[in-house]
Amino acid sequence: MSEALNQLLDILKLEKIDTNLYRGVTPKTTSKRVFGGQVFAQAMRAAQDTVESERIVHSQHAYFLRPGDPSVPILYVVDDIRDGGSFTTRRVVASQRGKAIFSTSLSFQILESGLSHQSDMPECPGPEDLPDDSQSWDKIREQLDPTAKVRPPKYGPRLLPIQMRSVEPIDYINPVARKAEQFVWIKTAGELPAEQDSGLHNAILAYASDFSLMSTALMPHEVSIMNPKLQPASLDHAIWFHDNFRADEWLLYHMDSLRSSRSRGLSRGTFYSRDGRLVASTIQEGLMRLRDS
Q1: Taking the CB of residue 14, how many other CB atoms lie within 10 A of it?
Q2: How many domains does the chain have?
Q3: Residue 89 resides in a domain
C-alpha cells in the first residue's frame, strides 16, 4: 500500500468529538483550498458512523458553499433526519471558523433484491497497457518548470492515492477541442485490507468521483483546468451506488458532459467493474468562469 493511500485512509478516519460531531483534517498540500472530494468523502464517513452497519449508503447529494482552508480542521455535524423501516436519512454540514463550507444529504438502505437492469459497459482498451496518469503529470511539470522534481508538485498531487489511466489523455498544456467524453480506469494505489467494510470502499469512490468531471465539460472549448484565466470550482455533486465493488480493483470511469452555459458545466459519470456491472453513477455541476485577465 502506498504512503499516499495510507494518508487517504487516515483522513477518512474522523475524530469523534461528541454525539454526531466529528473533526476531519487535510493532509499537507500546496493547494490553497481543500479538495472537494475529500470533504464529500469525510462527510459520508461521519454519516456512516451514525447508521446501523446493515444499512448501506445508496445516494449522496451535496453543495460546496465556501472554499475550505487546508490549514484548519473541518467540523462535521450530523443531523439524524429519519430512521425508517428500510431507509435512513442523514444531513451533514461541514464548517470552518464557524461558517458552513459544505452541506450534504445522504440516504441509506437495507440491502434488498428486486427488478434489475443497466446500460451496457462501453467498449474501450483495458488498463493493463495504458500509462498511469501520474506519468503524464510528471511530464507536464517538467515542461512547465525543469526544477519541479525537487519541489512540491503544483498540479495533480491528489492522483497519488488513486491510480488513474486515461484511454485518451487530455493535453492540458495545449488543449484541442474534443467531444466532451472521457474513459479513465481507476483504483486505489495499493490493496485494501480484505476485511474492510463496504462503506470505506464507497467513501473512497466518492472521493475519486470528483476527479476529471470538470475537465470533461471543458473539452469542447479548447480550455484546460490549467488555464490561468479559468476560475474553476465544484458547485454541487451527487453519487448513487448500485452494486457492490472493491475500490482496489480496476473500475472504468466513463464521463461525459451534457451542457455548459452561464459559466457552469454539467458532467456525469458511470463506474463499471471489470465484469461489466454498473456499480455507481455520479453527476456534478461546476463553475467554469473565464476571467478577462
Answers
A1: 20
A2: 1
A3: yes
Catalytic residue among 60, 96, 209, 210: 210
Q: What CATH number is attached to the domain comprising 203? A: 2.40.160.210
Residue 136 annotated to the active site: no
122, part of any domain: no
Residue 288: which residues within 8 A CB-CB, separation 6 or more? 214, 217, 218, 223, 230, 232, 260, 263, 264, 265
Query: Would residue 234 show up in a list of annotated catalytic residues for this protein?
Result: yes
User: Which residue among the candidates 182, 234, 267, 273 is catalytic per the annotation?
Assistant: 234
In a domain, 134, yes or no: yes
pTM (predicted TM-score): 0.91
* pLDDT per residue of the chain (293 residues) written in tens, 0 to 9: 788 899 999 999 999 999 999 999 998 887 889 999 999 999 999 999 999 999 999 999 999 999 999 999 999 999 999 999 999 999 999 999 999 999 999 999 999 999 999 999 999 999 998 988 877 767 776 666 655 443 334 444 445 899 999 999 888 888 899 999 999 999 999 999 887 788 999 999 999 999 989 999 999 998 888 888 899 999 999 999 999 999 999 999 999 999 999 999 999 999 999 999 999 999 999 999 998 86
Count of CA atoms in the C-beta half-sphere (13 A) of 241: 27
Q: Is residue 82 part of a domain?
A: yes
Expressed as residue numbers, the domain containing 38 is: 3-111+127-290
